[in-house]
# Entry
Amino acid sequence: MTIMTGSRNIVILTGAGVSAESGIDTFRDAGGLWEKHRVEDVATPEAFARDPELVLRFYDMRRKAIQTKQPNAAHEALARLDREWDGDLLIVTQNVDDLHERAGARNVLHMHGTHLNAWCTACDVRSRWTGTLIERPPCPDCGEPALRPDVVWFGEMPYEMERIYTALRSADLFVSIGTSGAVYPAAGFVRDARNLGVETLELNLEPSQGSHWFDEARHGPASQIVPSWVDELLGG
Ligand code: BJW
# Structure
């Protein structure tokens, strides 16, 4: 099946698998983050209220690590598509790293937030943050020691849902890359897209939990299958 030849507006959802070959741990693969840390201990607002030091240490460690990583061929290919595609294109990433941007992509929406922001729970201002939070530094805006990682934990509302659904409503093609399809609402986008009559394509190492919902699925490492799909799309 060859889909997408007539596509003009594209929404791309990315997950941890797109950054795996850059050396950033995924969550649910063997050896992934949720094997080493319990979700309930580090990725809920209740965990942060109960043991802020544990949570801040977990995110400080990951914020430091991502700054040593580099975009891979999948990020580069998506940045090229972002540059050269003449329809609308939105990259909705669940990832909190900045590798799409460092590869040069411009139309990126971080629905689960970003490691490189701190969010002040006192004044609600977000500030770029590359250092640590464990020492409870003052907010650059209001001075209160009330900063938390600007990431979306379980039970919190992902960012910019309206903008995502607006893009899906005018899309011709929805592409899901490197995500297990385990976490909602992102895992539901494929069904939302189908209901809207949008064609759907999965690019993942292996079939995801929702693989059967896609019109087409291609399986393999993102660094290989994403560049070849982008070549196909831009060449066709
Ligand atoms: C490769 C590869 C390679 C590897 N190449 N591929 C019951 C039913 C339905 C929903 C719920 C429910 N109970 C609770 C909920 C809601 C809950 C939820 O979904 N829970 C599930 C566990 C069931 N969701 C929420 O709470 C969300 N909020 C919410 O729903 O608000 C209400 C709402 C209502 C209506 C509309 C809108 C909102 C919030 C979810 C927040 C998720 N946060 C995290 C942490 C972020 C910060 C951090 O990084 O620490 O986000 S959890 C974690 O999972 C992270 C990720 O973004 C997210 C998804 O993970 P991802 O990216 O898919 O990674 P993996 O590891 O799962 O998969 C990697 C994939 O890559 C695999 O398939 C590999 O095969 C593949 N791969 N190497 C290509 N080289």
